[in-house]
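Retro notes (design track)

What went well: tokenization of the new backbones is finally stable.
What didn't: we kept losing track of which sequence belonged to which structure.
Fix going forward: every design gets posted as structure first, then sequence, in one message. First example under the new rule, 488 residues:
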């Protein structure tokens, strides 16, 4: 009996032994899995601890200053500035930022082992702060007020020379007219809140490929148009493939030009109009006098239609004696006003322009810009009364910028543009140009052999290369921003 019992118990013991072995294996597997997951969690927590958050930003409204100091409140949430998010952004960067990523990875390993020294952490934090600031400044471009900033001396400027560009007419060719100091070409505009891209002629030509870029306005706009031609020419392999469609040579006497860039199938055009509205003549009493029809667009406006990019301006001629006095000069219909305030006339003329763009410009095809006033810098008189600026070789101090007298015009421009149905971007160059007393032709607006005039200096227009190049960098900035928003 005992032997039979012993034999009958063996299967039970075998089953118990097998269950014990199986349970042990399952426990070891579960324990190993838990250990692996716990180790991964520790590494992630240590990584976040190492990349500690950058400086926190309070939720505050952003104020964008307009031309005259009028502020618009745009509230938005701050960006996610945690260290972990910063590393995620860094993974997409290339070039020198890859080195920074490597530094972060090695620092992460030290943090896991608990052996990161204080000096190593300081260096890592400095790199992180620097890269985070660059990323932050780049992100802020879309909301950046580029009108607030300073002029920075930069040896990498100018973007071209008077020798490399055949499109600079005599009035703006200061070097060709004998100006010796060159520092006025070396100043770059640096906004306080962001960085604007250096002008890229190849990218600009791609932006206007197959299109019409048209400048419409007075001789200050011709200044900007010539600057644009010179800047674009730097990316053209064969200069012979850039020509004026009517074979005209640029002079201040002729007012309409169209330059074709053959390889890009685009044109860069300029049409002169001092006031945007029609200059005419009417009978006042027994005399026939010159008038300005502030309710009628310039007769050349039909040429502007169909453009893909329009850059308008008017301001320079509104400061002349006839327009300022307003006596028997401003006309509406058949009526010539015996006297009309220049600000009222300026507003009426701009309303006529606004009505025209609303009616004749297609917002789906055309981008419209209005460049603000560029200040003159006459000292000791006006252009015809001994005003001068030839002594200036550096920008003005920030507290002495000469922009006050044009603020009223800019305010009117803003008011009118707010009422237009057609989207219009104000290309605000007033404040930044106000510092640049050194950028005018002064006595160097004509060839030396023609003789310098001690009584008449040009402190309104600008030398090329010079300040208008910055206006075109801002135009390039806005066009790129619009393209980015469209493709997003």
């Amino acid at each position: 009996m005992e032997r039979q019992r012993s034999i009958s118990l063996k299967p039970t013991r075998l089953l118990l032994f097998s269950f014990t072995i199986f349970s042990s294996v399952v426990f070891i597997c579960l324990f190993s899995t838990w250990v692996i997951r716990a180790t991964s969690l520790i590494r992630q927590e240590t990584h976040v601890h190492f990349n500690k958050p950058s400086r926190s930003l309070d939720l505050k409204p952003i104020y964008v200053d307009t031309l005259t100091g009028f502020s618009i409140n745009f509230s938005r949430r701050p960006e996610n500035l945690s260290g972990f998010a910063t590393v995620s952004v860094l993974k997409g960067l290339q070039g020198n930022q890859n080195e920074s990523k490597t530094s972060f990875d090695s620092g992460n390993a030290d943090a896991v082992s608990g052996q990161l020294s204080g000096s190593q952490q300081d260096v890592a934090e400095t790199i992180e702060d620097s890269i985070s600031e660059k990323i932050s400044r780049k992100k802020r471009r879309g909301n950046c007020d580029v009108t607030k900033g300073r002029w920075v001396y930069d040896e990498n400027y100018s973007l071209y020379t008077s020798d490399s560009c055949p499109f600079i007419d005599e009035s703006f060719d200061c070097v060709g007219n004998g100006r010796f100091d060159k520092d006025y070409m070396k100043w770059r505009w640096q906004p306080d809140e962001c960085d604007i891209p250096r002008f890229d002629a190849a990218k600009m030509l791609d932006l206007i490929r197959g299109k019409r870029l048209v400048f419409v306005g007075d001789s200050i706009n011709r200044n900007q148009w010539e600057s644009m031609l010179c800047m674009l020419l730097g990316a053209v392999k064969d200069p012979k493939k850039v020509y004026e469609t009517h074979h005209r040579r640029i002079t201040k006497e002729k007012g309409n030009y169209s330059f074709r860039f053959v390889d890009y199938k685009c044109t860069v055009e300029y049409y002169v109009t001092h006031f945007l509205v029609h200059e005419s003549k009417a009978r006042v009493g027994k005399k026939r006098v010159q008038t300005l029809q502030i309710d009628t667009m310039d007769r050349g406006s039909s040429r502007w239609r169909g453009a893909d990019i329009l850059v308008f301006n008017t301001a320079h001629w509104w400061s002349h004696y006839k327009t300022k006095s307003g006596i028997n000069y401003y006309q509406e219909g058949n009526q010539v006003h015996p006297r009309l305030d220049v600000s009222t006339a300026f507003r009426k003329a701009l309303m006529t322009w606004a009505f025209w763009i609303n009616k004749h410009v297609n917002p789906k095809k055309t981008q419209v810009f209005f460049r603000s006033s560029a200040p003159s810098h006459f000292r000791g008189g006006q252009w015809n009364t001994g005003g001068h600026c030839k002594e200036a070789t550096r920008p003005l101090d920030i507290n002495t910028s000469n922009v006050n007298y044009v603020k009223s015009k800019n305010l009117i421009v803003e008011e009118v543009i707010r009422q237009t149905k057609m989207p219009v971007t104000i290309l605000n160059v007033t404040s930044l140009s106000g510092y640049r007393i050194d950028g005018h032709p002064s006595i160097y607006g004509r060839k030396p052999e023609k003789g310098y005039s001690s009584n008449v200096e040009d402190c309104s227009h600008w030398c090329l290369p010079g300040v208008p190049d910055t206006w075109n960098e801002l135009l390039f900035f806005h066009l790129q921003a619009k393209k980015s928003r469209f493709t997003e």
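Added context from the reviewer: Residues 2-50 form the longest helix (49 residues).
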